[in-house]
């Protein structure tokens, strides 16, 4: 034990563990050996039991074979015998050599006897079979013999045969009864048969030598003897069987006894072995328990007692006795531990002193810290108060605003809201807080709005500003303006959104009202001009898409002013309202009726397939417009009635734009009015084109006047006889910027009878006067004639305007200007024109009748118009040398002039001959290419100075 104490703790534990392990292994080995030995014995015993069971099985099968000769049973017996033999041969551990030899010889004997028995049984079966066959054959023979005539003649023989038959049957019967085997009955039956056969042999028939009968009887006898011999032999085998059977069962009994003895001895061995095992195991168990107890005791002394001493010292130190020490005199780890512990206790005592010093310092530091905390806390409380006051203020401001202000976190839930939001949406504050913002919008849009809001939060867009529909708690929808802005924390991290919602329901209603006012007529409620323009535009797009037609009907009430004037404005209003309603009723869905002012309406008729489609609608409109209406007049309610004039244009036959269609419908309405009212008129495109062209020409000519593009050329007029230049005809030319110098025929017809032609005519007179004034200033006094159209001459203010122009150029004497009246056939009111000419004449102005002779009423003009000169048309002059008709006319005109005391001048003098001829007729005044072509004004003075008549003219 002292030695054990000297060991280290680790060694003590290792040693104890080793001893315990050795004991456990020894226990395990003993138990394993015992188990193996017992199981061996049990195996032997089981084998013996098997052998015994097989012996019983062999007995059983052998008995079955004995009883029913079952070939299967015999086969199994041989099989089991062979198995058992193998087992016995291999059982050298159980059986002694003698036992084994004796068992094997018993088994071999049994097998030999069983084989013999099987052979005997087979032979017996063969004999019995033979006896049976012979028996049947005998019966047939006996039947044959009994049937023989001769036998019937010998009753003894017959009787002997009958007896024999009976005896054979008896034998048969006796043999078939197994208990009777070998019994006296069989022996007696056999003796009787011998007796009967002897009787038969001695019978007379047998002996009489009737060969055939004798042969038959002899055969019967022989067969009967054979039968009997077979039978007896089978009986012998039956006896052999019985003895072999006995031998068999005896051997098997002996074998069984031998096996049982072996089994008993095996059981005895097993019992002895189990007893030995139990004793050994118990002994080892006791040794183990003792060893464990001894080891535990040693360990207790070596470990527990020092540890307890250490624990005691620890408790003492824990209780404040830092002088306590553990007194342990062992050399192991516990001893080391106690020494370390004692050292630690010393250190602890020293540290404690230091600690107390430090604790004092710490206490002082803590006091100062607490004071600082106190001060800081007071500051924080003050700051919190300020913050709370500020928050209160902000909340009050937020709650005062009539708008919803709220905060939304990054998941889209409302985290803060003002009281206006509670009022606006009708949710209690605690429901609003935590609610998803998107629950406030239209439920069908929730998912889309949620996605958009989350996208906004994760985007760079910091603010949204839009109008949107929201939903109150009671399900009521309302329009509001939403402003949403991303909010961030101090570190720039996104915190969510701040939202402001302002209810704009009233604003929108006001806006809708304004829109309504802007688009609808206040009196009738019909669309106004603005909305009409929009609808017409849309209708045109649809019409082009559907490839059909639409009509624009411009409707103006007839005589509406009279209603106002006679019955008052209110009555007029009533009438407008009632007629608007009726007219609207007679249109189709899709058509538009608009009031564009006063008593003017426009209907847009859509989806027409042809122009004819609009006629029934227009008829209905006319009918509705002239229906009777009861209106409140100044004199009380009265039946009033007006009618309407409608102008219609149809798109795309009229391919104009919306404005063009309106204008054309208006023009057509004007025509309807002109044609007697209460009717509709379809706009005429060709007519419109003509007017347009006329208008353009007029505008172009005005522009030419303004741009000074018109110029006057002058063609000299001469006296061919005297060689005097008598004047010049002013001929207009257009110095067109693109087309060059244009003759009057190129542009005057386009402005014929248009107001601009008057302006051009006046310009010609004014320019000629200006030119005359200029020439005069140069010393050239040259009378000038200008052409005046019938249209201009018929203007009521012509004389006045001429006077004004003459007054402008006062230095030019009126008698120096001559007006050549063109197109005299176009003069409508001869009396009026005559008066104008006389008025002009009174001013000193002379007239010439141009192209005289071309019109068939020229003579009337000559008679009634106060013209001092006749101008022979150049067409007659040019051809008079060849055409006697023209010459006759020229002659006639010259004669007329002379008769009426008028001057005559010929134009179209192209050659010297023309001049000669005219002179010969008596016409001295002339103009034409033969004299001079028309020339610019600046060339005239030189030409006048240099011109000389043809020598032949003066002759
Ligand atoms: N009662 C009423 N009269 C209006 C209103 N607006 C315009 N008027 C009058 O309607 C009349 C329309 O004038 P016109 O179309 O020239 O009169 P009208 O007698 O129909 O002439 P025709 O069209 O040539 O047959 C004018 O006297 C306007 O003063 C309105 O809102 N109410």
UniProtKB/TrEMBL annotation:
Signal peptide location: none
Sections of the chain in a coiled coil: 352-379
Domain GGDEF: 507-683
UniProt keyword Transcription, yes or no: no
CDD domains on file: EAL, GGDEF, HAMP, PAS
Pfam families: EAL, GGDEF, HAMP, PAS
Bilayer-crossing regions: 15-38, 277-295
Gene3D superfamilies in the cross-refs: 3.30.70.270, 6.10.340.10, EAL domain (3.20.20.450), PAS domain (3.30.450.20)
Domain named HAMP: residues: 301-353
Sequence ranges assigned to domain PAS in this UniProt record: 392-458
Keywords: Coiled coil, Membrane, Transmembrane, Transmembrane helix
Family annotation (SMART domains): EAL (SM00052), GGDEF (SM00267), HAMP (SM00304), PAC (SM00086), PAS (SM00091)
Occurrences of domain EAL (ranges): 693-939
Keyword Iron-sulfur attributed: no
Entries under PANTHER family matching the protein: BIOFILM ARCHITECTURE MAINTENANCE PROTEIN MBAA, DIGUANYLATE CYCLASE DGCP
Protein name (record): Diguanylate cyclase/phosphodiesterase with PAS/PAC sensor(S)
Upper taxonomic lineage: Bacteria, Pseudomonadati, Pseudomonadota, Betaproteobacteria, Burkholderiales
């Amino acid at each position: 034990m002292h030695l054990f104490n000297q060991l280290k703790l680790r060694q003590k534990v290792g040693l104890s563990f080793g001893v315990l392990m050795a004991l456990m292994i020894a226990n395990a080995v003993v138990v394993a050996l015992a188990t193996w030995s017992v199981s061996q014995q049990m195996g032997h015993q089981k084998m013996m039991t098997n052998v015994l069971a097989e012996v019983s099985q062999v007995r059983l099968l052998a008995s079955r074979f004995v009883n029913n000769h079952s070939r299967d049973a015999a086969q199994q017996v041989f099989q089991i015998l062979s198995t058992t033999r193998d087992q016995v041969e291999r059982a050298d551990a159980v059986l002694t050599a003698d036992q084994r030899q004796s068992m094997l010889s018993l088994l071999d004997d049994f097998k030999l006897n069983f084989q013999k028995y099987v052979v005997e049984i087979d032979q017996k079966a063969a004999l019995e079979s033979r006896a049976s066959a012979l028996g049947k054959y005998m019966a047939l023979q006996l039947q044959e013999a009994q049937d023989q005539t001769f036998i019937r003649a010998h009753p003894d023989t017959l009787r002997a045969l009958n007896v024999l038959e009976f005896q054979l049957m008896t034998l048969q019967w006796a043999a078939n009864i197994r208990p009777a085997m070998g019994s006296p009955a069989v022996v007696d039956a056999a003796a009787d048969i011998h007796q009967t056969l002897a009787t038969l042999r001695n019978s007379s028939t047998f002996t009489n030598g009737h060969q055939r009968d004798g042969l038959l009887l002899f055969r019967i006898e022989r067969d009967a003897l054979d039968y009997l011999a077979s039978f007896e032999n089978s009986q012998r085998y039956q006896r052999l069987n019985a003895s072999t059977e006995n031998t068999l069962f005896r051997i098997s009994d002996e074998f069984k006894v031998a096996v049982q003895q072996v089994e008993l001895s095996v059981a005895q061995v097993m019992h002895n072995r189990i007893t030995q095992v139990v004793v050994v195991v118990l002994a080892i168990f006791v040794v183990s328990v003792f060893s464990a107890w001894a080891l535990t005791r040693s360990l207790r002394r070596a470990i527990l007692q020092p540890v307890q001493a250490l624990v005691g010292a620890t408790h003492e130190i824990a209780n404040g006795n830092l002088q306590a020490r553990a007194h342990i005199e062992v050399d192991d780890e516990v001893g080391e531990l106690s020494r370390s512990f004692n050292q630690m206790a010393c250190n602890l005592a020293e540290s404690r002193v230091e600690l107390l010093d430090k604790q004092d310092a710490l206490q002082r530091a803590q006091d100062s810290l607490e004071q600082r905390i106190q001060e800081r806390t007071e500051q924080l409380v003050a700051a919190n108060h300020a913050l709370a006051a500020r928050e209160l203020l902000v909340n009050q401001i937020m709650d005062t605003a009539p708008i919803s202000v709220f905060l939304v976190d990054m998941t889209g839930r409302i985290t803060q809201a003002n009281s206006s939001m509670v009022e606006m949406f009708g949710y209690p504050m605690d429901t609003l807080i935590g609610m998803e913002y998107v629950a406030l919008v239209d439920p069908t849009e929730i998912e889309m709005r949620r996605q958009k809001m989350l996208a906004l939060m994760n985007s760079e867009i910091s603010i949204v500003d839009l109008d949107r529909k929201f939903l109150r708690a009671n399900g009521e929808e309302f329009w509001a303006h939403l402003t949403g802005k991303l909010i961030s924390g101090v570190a720039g991290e996104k915190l969510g959104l701040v939202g402001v919602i302002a209810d704009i329901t009233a604003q929108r209603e006001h806006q809708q009202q304004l829109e309504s006012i802007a688009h609808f007529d206040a009196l009738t409620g019909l669309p106004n001009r603005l909305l009409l323009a929009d609808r017409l535009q849309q209708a045109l797009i649809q019409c082009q898409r559907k490839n059909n037609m639409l009509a624009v009907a411009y409707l103006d009430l007839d005589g509406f002013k009279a209603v106002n004037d006679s019955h008052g404005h209110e009555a007029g209003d009533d009438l407008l309202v009632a007629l608007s309603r009726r007219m609207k009723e007679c249109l189709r869905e899709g058509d538009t009726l608009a009031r564009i002012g006063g008593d003017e309406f426009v209907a847009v008729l859509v989806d027409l397939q042809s122009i004819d489609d609009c006629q029934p609608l227009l008829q209905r409109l006319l009918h509705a417009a002239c229906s009777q209406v009861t209106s409140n007049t100044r004199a009380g309610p009265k039946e009033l009635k007006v009618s309407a004039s409608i102008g219609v244009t149809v798109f795309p036959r009229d391919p104009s734009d919306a404005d063009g269609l309106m204008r054309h419908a208006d023009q057509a309405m004007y025509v309807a009015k002109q044609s007697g009212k209460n009717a509709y008129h379809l706009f005429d495109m060709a007519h419109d084109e003509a007017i347009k062209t006329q208008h353009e020409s007029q505008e172009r000519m005005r522009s030419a006047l303004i741009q000074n593009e018109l110029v006057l050329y002058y063609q000299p007029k001469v006296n061919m006889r005297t060689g005097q230049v008598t004047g010049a005809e002013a001929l207009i030319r257009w110095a067109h910027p693109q087309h060059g110098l244009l003759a009057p025929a190129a542009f005057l017809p386009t402005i014929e009878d248009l107001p601009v032609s008057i302006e051009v005519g006046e310009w010609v007179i004014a320019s000629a006067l200006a030119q005359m004034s200029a020439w005069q200033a140069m010393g050239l006094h040259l009378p000038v004639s200008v052409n005046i159209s019938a249209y201009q001459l018929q203007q009521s203010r012509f004389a006045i305007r001429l006077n004004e122009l003459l007054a402008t150029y006062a230095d030019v004497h009126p008698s120096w200007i001559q007006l050549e009246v063109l197109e005299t056939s176009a003069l409508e009111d001869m009396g009026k024109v005559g008066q104008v000419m006389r008025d002009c004449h009174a001013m000193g102005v002379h007239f010439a009748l141009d192209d005289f002779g071309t019109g068939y009423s020229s003579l009337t003009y000559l008679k009634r118009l106060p013209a001092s000169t006749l101008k022979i048309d150049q067409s007659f002059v040019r051809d008079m040398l060849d055409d006697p008709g023209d010459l006759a006319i020229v002659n006639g005109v010259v004669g007329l002039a002379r008769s009426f005391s008028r001057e005559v001048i010929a134009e179209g003098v192209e050659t010297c001959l023309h001049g000669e001829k005219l002179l010969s007729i008596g016409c001295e005044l002339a103009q034409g290419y033969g004299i001079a072509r028309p020339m610019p004004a600046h060339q005239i003075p030189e030409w006048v100075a240099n011109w000389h008549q043809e020598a032949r003219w003066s002759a």
